[in-house]
Amino acid sequence: ELAKVTLNIAKKIAFDERRATAADLVGQLEIDVDPSLPLDNLDKNIVCADALFTEWPEVDAIVGNPPFLGGVKIRAELGEQCLSKLLGRCPEIAGRTDICSYWFRLAHEHLGPDGRAGLVGTSGIRVGKARVTSLDYIAANGGIITNAVSSREWPGEAAVNVSMVNWVKGPAEGPFTLVVDDQAFSVGRIPTHLQLHADVSTTEVLTANGTIPASGVTFGHEAFRSTLAGFPIELRGRPFIRPVATGDDMLRGRLIVEPDYCIDLRSFATESDAEAAGGLAFLHLRKHVYPIINGRARSGKDTKHYEAWLRRWWQPLDCREEFFRSVATKERIMGCPRVQARGIFCFLSTAFVPNNTLKLFAFDDDYSFGVMQSELHWAWTKAKGGKVTERIEYTTAVWRTFPWPQEPSEDEVVAVAEAARNLRKVRDTLMKDNGWSLRALYQAAEVPGPHPLKTAQAALDDAVRRAYGMPEGQEATAFLLELNKLVAEDEAAGHPVQGPGVPRGMDPRDPRLLSTDCIE
User: Fold this and answer.
1) Of 17, 239, 320, 394, which has the most beta carbons under 10 Å away?
2) Strands laid side by side in the 183-187 sheet
3) Helix (H, G, I), strand (E, B) or coil at 344
């Protein structure tokens, strides 16, 4: 009823505006006939129904903002019957996609020849099964995307990023407009992943990349952590009271001056050893942590999960034992925030206990740091990583598919290491001279014009491109995608390929590739 009234009001307003315009043109000419009266009967025009399962007429244009609901929530919120009906419409999707993606498919099916449509969807329609359901279906069935916004924060109350897609069912001539990061680009074709870079959905997992990077320790209970002042005086300085490294504290500069601390009894395999060594710290955990774990282990919910933790309750929930054993002899390791707006890597002293807001890499050489800190690696991270609002999550897909330089010369490897050391030196100098944190430094470098950090980063990027043998002018993601395919083909054929780290034939402890600076 509201829609009917709104459309009639709109018609009235349109007539009044046209009458005013006509009067201006012909000199106060009165137009007596008011076509907005009598009011139109819109009972057949406005239909209140479930558009997913109601038959649509074939039309010339469709515009809308479909509802958003994650694929895993459809059964819980709309019921089994709704999910079954959706699967009947699109059995190849198996129901594991946001409900908005089905609307793109429905809209395209009901457009007439040369019909046009424009819909808003979650930014997830650019990837995975949601993309298969929506934009890939449109492209495979005679549709051409003519204008799109890749991702934009929804201006309403919902905390979601959206994509906006306009397309035509039939031929269309470019150039077309693709908006990425609120900047409009004129392109000859808009791909269904709604990005400027190459489509990386077809990348291969590279066996040579080996063990995936680790997340830091998951403590599982706040009693493990405190400020240093929060621990009794007699515990301060004990070897099992250790500083904690978090992604946010790394960017804010807190790790150097005021990190949080934790009780770290990970090295004690038995309860008796932990009690003998930990003393008051052990008693603190037994008072605050043990009852919670014990209660949940016996609650009947997630019992296996908590039963396993109960057997070593004085340790954090996830200790990442395998990773920390692999770096036991190192004095520094490389890390980055698990979710970040910019690609920022650092060396961390192994005195820290990193938590699960950090991604950790078992590298302590400057060559590996240089490749990871390069613009090529960040471009790949943005293309393959997850999206958390406008930030990028470093996922296992980034690591497993990222191809490293295959045949760099010794001089090229050393040049990358030197450029990497210089970049960190420039960062440290600028932060000390200006009282900046890492985050503040990178924000300052984003302003237009020259900046020492930009210069140092450009030098590192040039060195990394030479190590890759990357042709001048080629887009980074397209180059890496092609290299990913070549490395995967070599692996399948049994040929040796170069994985992460210092290249074969070079000594990983070559002093030209090593330094000692790190966050301490």
Assistant:
1) 394
2) 59-64, 111-122, 161-169, 143-153, 176-180, 183-187
3) coil
Task: Provide the residue type at 341 as one letter.
Answer: A
Q: Is the dihedral of CA 457, 459, 465, 471 positive or negative?
A: positive
The number of beta carbons lying within 10 Å of the beta carbon of residue 153 is 14
Mark residue 451 as left, alpha or beta (left: phi above 0; alpha: psi -120 to 50; beta: remaining): beta
Given pLDDT bands bounded at 50, 70 and 90, which one contains residue 200?
A: confident
Closest CA to 517 of 348, 369, 352: 348
- pLDDT for 30: 56
Local structure of 50: helix, strand or coil = coil
DSSP, collapsed to helix, strand or coil, labels residue 284 as helix
User: Which of helix, strand or coil describes residue 441?
Assistant: helix
The Cα angle at residue 89 between residues 84 and 90, in degrees rounded to 5: 95
Q: How many other CB atoms are there within 10 angstroms of residue 126's CB atom?
A: 23
* Beta pairing partners, 121: 163
C-beta neighbour count of 355 within 10 angstroms: 22
Query: Quick one: tokens of 104?
Result: 């793109």
Strands 386-388 and 391-393: antiparallel
pLDDT higher for 325 or 305? Answer: 325
Q: Can you tell me the distance from the alpha carbon of 97 to that of 72, in angstroms, rounded to the nearest whole number?
A: 7
Q: How far apart are CA 350 and CA 330, in angstroms?
A: 7
Structure tokens at 406: 């295959």
pTM of this prediction? 0.75
Task: Please say whether the beta carbons of 404 and 490 come within 8 A.
Answer: no
Q: Is the pLDDT of residue 22 over 70?
A: no
8 Å CB contact between 204 and 401: yes
**All residues at 6 or more sequence positions from 417 whose CB lies less than 8 Å from its CB, including other chains:** 365, 366, 367, 369, 370, 512, 513
What does the pLDDT look like over 235-246, one tens digit per residue? Answer: 888 889 999 999
Q: Which class for 468: exposed (0-12), middle (13-18), buried (19 or more C-beta within 10 A)?
A: buried
Structure tokens at 232: 């009794």
- Hey, is 97 helix, strand or coil? coil
Phi, psi angles (nearest 5°) of residue 281:
-65, -40
Nearest-5° angle of CA 116, CA 119, CA 123?
Answer: 135
Confidence category of residue 24, pLDDT binned at 50, 70, 90: low
- Tell me the C-alpha distance between 286 and 269, whole Å: 16
| Whole-angstrom distance, CA of residue 48 vs CA of residue 482 | 50
What span, in angstroms and rounded, lies between the C-alpha atoms of 405 and 498? 7
pLDDT in tens, 413-450: 999 999 999 999 999 999 999 999 999 999 999 999 99
